[in-house]
Amino acid sequence: MRRDSIFYQLFRQYPALLFELLPQLPDRANEYIFESIEVKETAFRIDGVFIPPDPSGIIYICEVQFQLDELLYERMMSEISIYTYRNRERFANWQAVVIYPTRTVEQSRTEMVQELLDTGRIRRIYLDELGKVEELPTGLGLMVLTTLEGDDATTQARGLIDRSLERADIMNLISTIMVYKFSNLSRDEVDAMLGIELQQTRVYQEAKAEGLEIGRQQEKALVIKQLNRKLGNLSPQVQARVLALEIDRIESLGEALLDFTSGADLEAWLSQN
C-alpha cells in the first residue's frame, strides 16, 4: 500500500492535521504550509515539512514509517541537518514527528538520538494507540484506517463515510485508501462495496430537495411582496392562506395578481382555489 501517497494527500489538504497528533499547537497552526522536500545533494526525501507562517516559528518535519528501518533516525538527522543548513532563514527552530503504525516497526537501537526522543525534539506517534476510529476526529480516523485490514477496514471505512456525507474530499480519500488495500478491485468496485455511490446519490437528492424547498419559499415570498405592493399590506390571515398554496397555485397567483385592483379580487381568487 502506498501510504506515503495517502499521507501526502492528507497533509496537503489538511496541513493542521499534523498538530492534532501533538500535545500543544504551535502559534497560528492553521497558517502552516505543507511541502514534500527532496534533499537533492544526498537523494534523501523528507515526507513532509510544515513551514511556519513567519520565520520566528517552529518548522515541523514529518516522517511516515510503516516498515522497519534500522537506520531511520540516522537518516532523518542527515536530512534535517542539510535542510536546516540550507533553509535557516525560514524558521527559528525545528521539531520532528515520526508516524508509525505500531511500535513493532520502530528501529531497535536509538542510543544516538535518545536525548532527542526523551526531550520530545523527535516525537513518535503510534497510530494503533490513538484509539478507535469511531471515537477519533475524522482526520485522525483516516490515519488509523491506513493501518487496518480486511473486514475491519471495510467496517471502519463505512463508518467514516457515514460521518462525511457532505464532504466529497473526505469520501474521495476514504475511497483512495481502500483502493490501495483492495488492489484486486477497481475503484468503482471499491466504491460499490463501501456504498459510496449510494451515499453520494442520497446526499445529492437531499441537497436537491432542500434547494427546491428554498426555491418554493422564495417564490411564495415574492408573490406576497407583489400582493402587498399592489393591494396594500395583507393581513396575517390572508398571508397564511397564500403561503399554504401549492407551488403550482402560487405560480398561477403570480400571473393572476396582475389583474387585481383590490383585496376583494384576491379574496375571490383564493375562494376559487
The rounded distance between the terminal residues' Cα atoms is 65 Å
How many helix segments? 11
Characterize the largest beta sheet: strand count, sense, and whether it forms a barrel: 5 strands, mixed
**How many structural domains are formed by the residues?**
3
Q: Find the count of extended strands (DSSP E, 2+ residues).
A: 5
- Pattern of helices and strands: HEEEHEHEHHHHHHHH
CATH class wording of the largest domain:
Alpha Beta
CATH domain fold name of the largest domain: Trna Endonuclease, Chain: A, domain 1
Q: Judging by the overall fold, what is the CATH architecture of the largest domain?
A: 3-Layer(aba) Sandwich
Strand content: 5-15%
Strand order of the largest sheet: 1-2-3-4-5
Q: Helix/strand/pairing class, anyone?
A: alpha/beta
Mean pLDDT: 84
Rg (C-alpha, Å): 29 Å
What does this structure look like?
With 273 residues, the protein is an alpha/beta fold. The model has no long low-confidence stretch (mean pLDDT 84). The chain has a five-stranded mixed β-sheet with strand order 1-2-3-4-5. It contains eleven helices and five strands. It folds into three domains: 1-129, Trna Endonuclease, Chain: A, domain 1 (3-Layer(aba) Sandwich); 140-194; 205-272, no CATH class. The chain starts with a helix and ends with a helix.
